[in-house]
Amino acid sequence: MGRDHWKKIWIGSAGNMVEWFDWFVYASFAVYFAGAFFPEGDDTAKLMNTAGIFAVGFFMRPVGGWLLGRVGDRKGRKAALTLTVTLMSASALLIAVAPTHAVAGYGGAAVLLVARLLQGLSVGGEYAASATYLTEASAPGHRGFASSFQYVSMTAGQVLGLGLLLVLQQTMSTEALHSWGWRIPFVIGALGAAVVFYLRRNMLETEVYEETADAGVAPGRQGTLRALWDHRREAFLVVALTMGGTVAYYTYTTYLTKYLSNSAGLPKQTATLVSFCALIVFACLQPLAGRLSDRIGRRPLLVTFAVGSTVLTVPILTMLKRADSFWPALGLSLLALLVVTGYTSINACVKAELFPTGIRALGVALPYAIANALFGGTAEYVALWFKNAGVESGFAWYVAGCAAVSLIVYLTMRETRDIDLARVGATGGTGAPGPGPVPPVRKETAVDSAS
């Protein structure tokens, strides 16, 4: 991979990291600001209220996926990425200044809700824009490796958020964190997004988009729902293959800290440290798995994830609930995230490889956002609902069931590793979209030859 490839990956990943820092600190700091906006009820009830607003943000993601996916296909990946980070900066600033219940009653919760809706709009477009950008910006034969940096940067954003939480837990009193300390990460997130806005304004567009922006769709229909309907099979495939992965991912990332403190009974500081250490290892695994997929294909990794998640979720969550110290909790968390890596490391490029250039951003964005709204965004709320109902073990079976459904999809889908992005959905003389990817064409590079 050349210098230009790495520059595109760096800028795309840095922006993605800040986006997801802002998205995840909401979940990480919820235990401290839940009482500020929802003072009534026990700890679980307060967390359910904040988790409900967390889930609402996901239901804006399909809107963001449609709007920003359209921008990405019609105006370019760079334009979509710049717009997403602008929205995220505004939403983080809103949360930072939101009035508490003591000051404005439930007006503060309303501000929190509006901010979360803006975040959902932003992230709904960010995922697809960055997935498409990183996949198109990579060298031939290295798409799995390059696109894996999407989850490296996503995880880095969460690690930074947890790291900041650990620092604040060590340097501030619990009372101060509950009172005003929880606002600090949102101020930092707003400032970080402003810096990324500058970087993205100067980023390079991908060559694939510049050369084949209208490929695979009729003239003037780039980024439209009509064009997406022509590729509805691939769109439904994105929803189905995302289902199990997104539930498992959010279970072992955003919900893990709460599960360890609220169910296993570990101190909040210990639970946070477990998540922090596990996510660092998880981030390091992504490029390794992505590179492996460039060698052996995408389907073997997806199938391994689905089998592992279906079989191991119930025992892992059961043992995590009984973990009484740092090391057992960390070991089980690492095992869970190792399994999830089979999905996270390559799901970005798999989805991007399904669509032609003219509909790729929207094709990834909208179906993925719908799947996340239905399954990923509700994972934490469903988990807390099972706990509140006294059948917490039911959530583990729910996660395993979602993975089992995705397993069926992985076993029946085609391999996408060798598809030429510039020729996906190649058109005939009429300009009508073709039935799907043309026969695989893989360009051998010097790296391929050497290896």
From TrEMBL:
Organism: Streptomyces omiyaensis
Family: Belongs to the major facilitator superfamily. Metabolite:H+ Symporter (MHS) family (TC 2.A.1.6) family.
Coiled coil feature spans: none
UniProt name for this protein: MFS transporter
Membrane topology label: Multi-pass membrane protein
Positions of the UniProt region annotated as Disordered: 427-451
Compositionally biased residues, Basic and acidic residues: 441-451
Spans traversing the lipid bilayer: 20-38, 50-68, 80-98, 180-199, 235-252, 272-289, 301-320, 326-346, 358-375, 395-413
Keyword Transmembrane helix (UniProt): yes
PANTHER family named among the record's database cross-references: ALPHA-KETOGLUTARATE PERMEASE, PROLINE_BETAINE TRANSPORTER
